Request: fold
Amino acid sequence: MNDVNQSNKFVTEEHKVPTNYEPEPTIVWWKNGDHPNDDVYRPFEDTGKKPTEPREGKVVRYFRHPSISGDSICDNCQRIMNDHGWIDNGGEGQKVCPGDWIDKNLTGR
Ligand SMILES: [Zn+2]
Reply:
């Protein structure tokens, strides 16, 4: 007799997915102005005039780094860093490669 009570309890409970589940709203970023909240034609703060050329995006900004040259090649996508964007998330920030998926609801800082 082996009366060791082994706990052979199989977990059969399924993880239920809520029926109203929607995937995170995202966009694919390729270049400055691609984010819907970039607002690249917002008036200039000092003059109040509307720009004729797109400005730097409010959400995805230009990639600028003091120690990374704009001509250097990205490890992730093999494109030059000047083709990249930057999201200021309050921490160290987030590099955006062309073709990256990013949250559509970001509003910029
Ligand atoms: Zn990249």
